[in-house]
Amino acid sequence: MIFINETLFSKTKAIINKYEFTFKKKFGQNFLIDNHVLNKIISSAEIDENDVVIEIGPGIGTLTAEVAKKAFKVIAVEIDRTLVPILRDTLSGFNNIDIINDDILKVDIKKIAEKYSDKRVKIVANLPYYITTPIIMEILEKRFPVESITVMVQKEVAYRMGAKPATKDYGALSLSVQYFCEPYIVANVPRNCFMPRPNVDSAVIKLTVLKEPFTKTENIKLMFDIIKSAFSQRRKTLLNCLFNSGGFGFSKDEIVGILSEIGFDEKTRGETLGLSDFARIADAVYKKIR
Ligand code: SAM
């Protein structure tokens, strides 16, 4: 059981020692040891008894236990089999937690979400950094029925996800995430909040999944291909970026023509444009190629 009045640092240390657990760098094992941050994650995720929470990478169960106190059910997916007996011990006081020993990238999250379609499904995690973008983009792009994703990620990644046009962090990731979600940076988390201490700072970000994207476009894939091209060469104009990435079959003059038809000139830079601008560009290109 997790003892609330015990500091997370000494509790974590005691469990590590008891099981002679060795941290595995390849699994991004940096366990949260700060109560304040733990509370922030829990409060921002807004979990209640109607929620089924999928936790990616429960570690020794610190976050899992707090989520389980509020949720209808927690499904905790942990890749490291040596953590499973530890989780069975630390979470023994709960009857609403399923532990799945598997790689989250191989788990059918959609199937789990659909199984609990009468509940709200939320994702909560202190994510191993190496899977952050693939797992979030898979959940969003495949439109898994989840309501929100509240995750600890590398600070730079959180800021890129939440960035607005014409800021240094703005790029293709900002647009991809914001097409599907409303992002909110919950907290900055310094590296000393983890055991062992990672080399980077982190942040908690909450992504509230939109029922329907605000931005409408005729061909989503084309819009994201254009976005990818627009940010492929940071210092170049949109025109040059599009042309240098193949121009979608158009000559440079034709691209100038398409852009000017919708009010963008040759000096326009991708980093100044929002989702609705990219949707207009995609629709103008699509009109010529379909
Ligand atoms: N949730 C714990 C906490 O906050 O202290 C641990 C977080 S630690 C940053 C990441 C956890 O994810 C580790 O327990 C690690 O073993 C697990 N993990 C890493 N890769 C995974 C994967 N592909 N699928 C499932 N779990 C994974």
Question: Topology of this protein?
Answer:
Layout: H1 8-18, E1 31-32, H2 35-45, E2 51-56, H3 62-68, E3 73-78, H4 84-90, E4 97-101, H5 109-115, E5 120-126, H6 132-141, E6 148-154, H7 155-162, H8 172-180, E7 181-189, E8 194-195, E9 202-209, H9 220-230, H10 238-244, H11 252-261, H12 275-289
Parallel strand pairs: 2-3, 2-5, 3-4, 5-6
Antiparallel strand pairs: 1-8, 6-9, 7-9
The structure holds S-adenosylmethionine.
S-adenosylmethionine (SAM) binds near residues 28, 56, 103, 104 and 131.
Structure in words:
The protein is α/β, with parallel strands linked by helices. Helix 6 links the parallel strand 5 (120-126) and strand 6 (148-154). The model is unreliable at 1-5 (pLDDT under 50). Helix 9 (220-230) crosses helix 12 (275-289) and helix 10 crosses helix 11 (252-261). The chain folds into 2 domains: 8-209, 3-Layer(aba) Sandwich (Rossmann fold), CATH 3.40.50.150; 220-289, Orthogonal Bundle (Helicase, Ruva Protein, domain 3), CATH 1.10.8. The radius of gyration is 22 Å and the shape is elongated. Helix content is 39%, strand content 18%. The protein has helices at residues 8-18, 35-45, 62-68, 84-90, 109-115, 132-141, 155-162, 172-180, 220-230, 238-244, 252-261, 275-289; strands at 31-32, 51-56, 73-78, 97-101, 120-126, 148-154, 181-189, 194-195, 202-209. Bound molecules: S-adenosylmethionine. S-adenosylmethionine is lined by residues 27-32, 56-59, 62-63, 77-80, 83, 103-105, 126, 128, 131.
